[in-house]
Amino acid sequence: MTIADRVPPVDLDLAARPPSSAFRRWLAPVTFAVFGLVEIFVLGLNAHHGDATFAFSQPFAKVTVPNLSLPAAVTCYVCGALTLLVAAVRAFLPLGPALRRVAIAVVIFLFIVALLCWADAGLTTAVNVVNLLQGTLNDSIPIMLGALTGVVCSRSGVINIAIEGQLLLGAFTAAMVCSVTGSLWLGLVCGALAGSLVAVLLAIFAIGYRVDQVILGVVLNILILGLTTYLYDDLMVPYQNTLNSPNTFSVFKIPLLGDIPILGPVFFDATIFLYLTYIALAGIQVGLFSTRWGLRTRAIGEHPIAADTVGIPVIAMRYRNVIAAGLIAGIGGAYFTIGSVGAFGPNMTSGEGYIALAAMIFGRYTPFGAIGAALLFGFTTQLQSIMSTLNTPIQSNLLLMTPYIVTIIVLAGLVGKVRGPRAEGIPYVKA
Amino acid sequence: MSDQASSSGPAAAAKKEDEQEPHASFGQSLRDSILEGHTVTIIILAIFTGFVVGGLLNAFTNTTVLHAWGNFFSAPGHAIAAAWDTAVGAYVAMFEGSIFNPHTVAALFQQASFATAVHDGYLSAVFNPLSETCVQATPLILAGLAVALPYQAGLFNIGAEGQLIGGMILATYLGYGVSLPFFVHVVVCVIGGFVGGAAIGWLVGELKARTGAHEVVVTIMMNYIMIYFLAYLLSFGYLMQAPHTSNEITSPIAGDAHLPLLFGSHLRINAGFLIALACAAGIWWLLNRTTTGFEFRSIGKNPSAARVAGMNVERNWVLVMLIAGGLAGLSGGTVIQGTDFTLNFQSYGTYGITAITVALLGLGRPLGVVLAGLLFGALDAGAPLMQAATGTPVSMVQVLQAVIVLFVAAPPLIRTMYRLRATRAGGVGEVMSKGWNG
After folding, report:
1. Residue of A10, A160, A218, A347 to mutate when probing chain B, most B C-beta within 10 A
2. Alpha-carbon span A64 to A303, nearest angstrom
3. In angstroms, rounded to a whole number, what is the distance separating the alpha carbons of residues B217 and B221?
4. Pseudo-torsion of CA A249, A251, A253, A259, nearest 10°?
5. pLDDT digit string, tens, across residues B253-279
6. Candidates 2.40.128, 2.60.40, 3.40.1110, 1.10.3470; CATH matching B128-382
7. Going by C-beta distance under 8 Å and a sequence separation of 6 or more, which residues neighbour residue B73?
8. Nearest CA in chain B to A224
9. Gap between the terminal Cα atoms of chain B
10. What are phi and psi of A70, to 5 degrees?
C-alpha cells in the first residue's frame, strides 16, 4: 500500500508545467485569435441577412422555453470579438491550468454559436438546441462506454485496441439474443457478456501468452469483424425475421427531473443505456480514485513490480479488470442494435471503437476526460447532420474528419502532452 | 499432424541424447526443428488449425447440417456426413476458384483443335484461377510489405489503408487528368501511387520522430481522415467526380496508364504482380544487404542500443514510414491501374486490413509476405466460386485469415495444442511487447 500510495496519477502535474518554448507559448493564443478572425471575417461577413433562431424546447414539453432569435451577422461579430478578447487574456495574463481549460471551452462554445448563427441566418427553420444536445448525448453512448472500458484497461496496464471488436460483438449478440428470446434485458446482458468474451480472449493472449497487445487488439478486431459479417451473411440474412429483428428499448423519462426545461430532455429522457453510462462513469470515477481497488489498479498499471512487492496479485487483478471492463463495452455495443436501430448490419460500429480509443487518450486516461472527449466527438457528428439539413456549403465529409485530426494534434502534444500509465502494454512477468 | 503430437514424448527423450553429439545429421535437425515448434512448423500448424476452425464454423452454421444434427440420434452418420460435405465442399470450391479447376481441362480437351481452343480462351480458362490468385495477391503483397517493413524497424503500421487510398487518389488523378505518351504514362502513374502513399507515411513518421505521437493511433486516425477525404473528393464534379454523374466515381484512367497484361487479354494477371515481387526482392535486399536496412533492424531490436551506437533513430523512423507508405500507395496504384481503372468509394476494400494479417503471417519478412500474400490472395480469389457453388458467404475468408493470424500471433497456444516442445532459442514466440510509451 505504501509504495502504491506514492504512485502519482499520471496526468495531473503535466498541465501545470510552464510552456517549454516560444512555439508552445504562442500556440494557444494564436489559435484562439484565428478562430476569432474566422468568426468575424468568414462567418460574420458571409452570413445571410436575417436572424438565426434557436429553439430550446421540444414539442409537447410541459414547460416551454421561448425561442431565441439573434441577428446572425452581429452575433458572429460579437463572438469573434469575445474570442479575440480571450486570446489576448490567454496571451498576456498568467492563467492557471483550470482557467486555461475554461478558456478553451469558451472559445469552442463561441465558435459553435457563431457557426450555427451563420448556418441558420435568414432561414425559417430553427436550430433546436435541445435536439442537438440530446442527439449528442445519445449517439455518444457507445463511444463513452468504450472509452471507459479503455480507461480501466489502460489503468490496469493493458492496451485495449479491441474496443471496436467488443462493441461489434456486443451489438451482434444483443440483436441475435433479443430476436430469438424476445427479451430486451436478456439481449442487454448477453451483449455485455459478448464484450466480456472478447476481453477474455484479450486477457488470455495479452496477459497469459504475453502477445504484443497492439497487434493482438488489431487481430481481434479483424476476427470479430470477419466473424460477425460471416454470421450475418450466413444466418441473419436468410432468417431475418427470427434472428435479426430485435425490439428496441423505449425511452424512459425520469419523473420530475425529465420535465426540467432544456436539461431534462437532454439528461433525463433517454433509454436505459444513458443511465447505465452515468452509473459506469460514477462507478469508475469513484472506484479508480477513492477505493482500494482503484489504488491497486493504478498501481499495477504504473509500477507492477512495486505493486507485486506489497502483495497485490498483479496478473490476477489484470485479468479481472480487463474482463470486467469488457462488460461495459459490450453494453455500449448493444446500444447500436437494441438501443437505437434494432437490426444488426455488418461493420455497424464503423470505427467508433477507435474513436473511443482516441477519446480515452484525449481525455488523459481519466473517466471524466474520456467522457468529455467522447461527447465532443459525438457533437461533431451531430453538428455535421444539422449543417447538412440546413444546406450549408460546409462539406460534411470534411467536418467528419475533425475528430480524427484533433486527436492527432492532441497526440502530437501540440495542446499538452498526454502520458499513459507507465506500464501500459508491458506484460508482467513475475520474477 | 497427430503423428507428430503422439511421437513427441519419445522424441523428447531422443533429443537429450542428440545434444551429446556435436554434429547432428540433417535428418535429425529437421526432425528436431519440427518437434520443437520451429517457426515454419508453427505457421503450418496455425494455417491447418485455421482451416479446421473455419470448416467447423462453416459446417455448424449451415442449415442443412443443423437439420441433420437435429436428427442426430436417428441418423448420426448422416449428420456427420453432412457437416463433412459442407466444410469440404466449400474448400474444394475455393481451391477450384483459386488454383485449378478440372472442369476447365475437360472443356479444353473437348475442343476440335488446340489452336481454336487457345483462340477461344479455353486454355486461358485453365490458368484463370491462378491468374486471379496472383491478381488478388498483388495488392496484398505490396500492402503487406508496407506493414512488414516498419515492423522490422519496431513500428506497427496500421495505416496501410490510408496510405493505400493516398496512392489510389494520386495514381487515378494522373491516370485520367494528364495525357502522356505510352509507357511514360504508366510509369508516371506508378510513381504517383508511390508518392501519394509515401506522403501519408512520411507524415506519420515525422509526427512520431518529432513529437513522439504513437504511430498506431496516428495511423488509425489517418485511415479515417483519408476515407473521408476520398469521399469528399468523389462528391464534387470540380474535384475528382466524373463529369455528368451523381455517382461517387472518377472518370476511367486512360488506356496508356493501364498496367500491361502479362498473358493475353483473357487473363487479368498484369505487370502489377511483377512490381509486387520486385518490391519484395527490393525490400529483402534493403533489409539484409544495406546499411540502412541494418539500421532499421537494429532500431527494431533495441532503439536505445541503436542510438548509443550512433544511429539516428528518428531519421530512420521517418525513412521507414516513408518507404512503407510508398509501398502501400503502390498497392493502391496497382489496383487502379491493373484491374479497376476507376476510383470509387469501394476501391480501397479491405486490402489495408488484410495487409496487417499478411504481414503478421509472413512474420514481417519479405519472402514470408509474398507467400502469405499468395495464400490470402488465393482465399480471396476462390471465395466467389465458393459462395456460388456452396452458398458459404465470401466473408468466411475474413474469419479464416483472422483465425490463422491469431494462432500465428500466439505460438504458445499452438505448442500446447499440438504438444510441441518449447524452443531452445528464437522461434515465433519472441514477439517483443512494448507499451505506448517506449
Report:
1. A218
2. 54
3. 6
4. 170
5. 998 899 999 988 889 999 999 999 999
6. 1.10.3470
7. none
8. B399
9. 40
10. -120, 140
Is residue A431 less than 8 Å (CB to CB) from chain B? no
B275 three-state secondary structure: helix
A20 part of contact set with chain B, CB < 8 Å: no
Question: Grid coordinates in use for B45?
Answer: 500448424
The C-alpha atoms of residue A166 and residue A174 are separated, in whole angstroms, by: 12
Angle at A94 between CA A89 and CA A100, to 5 degrees: 70
What does the alpha-carbon distance between residue A225 and residue A88 come to, in Å, rounded to a whole number?
49
B366 Cα to chain A: minimum distance (Å): 19
Q: Which of residues 206-225 of B touch A (CB under 8 A)?
A: 207, 210-214, 216-218, 220-222, 224-225
The one-letter amino acid code at A14 reads L
B:359-378 residues touching chain A, CB 8 A cutoff: 360
Chain center to CA of A311:
35
Rounded Cα–Cα distance for residues A168 and A353 (Å): 9
Q: φ, ψ for residue B261 (rounded to 5)?
A: -75, 150
SS3 sequence, B280-308? HHHHHHHHHHCHHHHHHHHHHHCHHHHHH
- Which pairing describes strands A252-253 and A269-270: parallel, antiparallel, or unpaired? antiparallel
Higher pLDDT, A398 or A136: A136
C-alpha cell at A194: 459478448
Q: Cα-flanking dihedrals φ and ψ of residue A281, to 5°?
A: -60, -50
> In what helix (H) or strand (E) does residue A280 lie, and over which residues does it extend?
helix A272-290
Q: Per the confidence metrics, is the pTM higher than 0.95?
A: no
* Closest to A225 measured CA to CA, from A184, A309, A167: A167
Nearest CA of chain B to the CA of A67: how many Å? 35
Domain boundaries, chain B: 128-382
Residue extents of the structural domains in chain A: 22-132, 153-411
Segment A68-86, tens digit of pLDDT = 888 888 889 999 999 999 9
Give the pLDDT of residue A375: 92
Give the residue from A108, A80, A104, A344 showing the smallest Cα distance to A224: A344
A328-354 exposure pattern, b = at least 16 Cβ within 10 A, e = fewer? bbbbbbbbbbbbbebbbbbebbebbbb
* Parallel, antiparallel or unpaired: strands A51-55 and A127-128: parallel
Query: If you ran DSSP here, which 8-state letter would residue B270 be given?
Result: B
Beta carbons within 10 angstroms of residue A292's beta carbon: 11
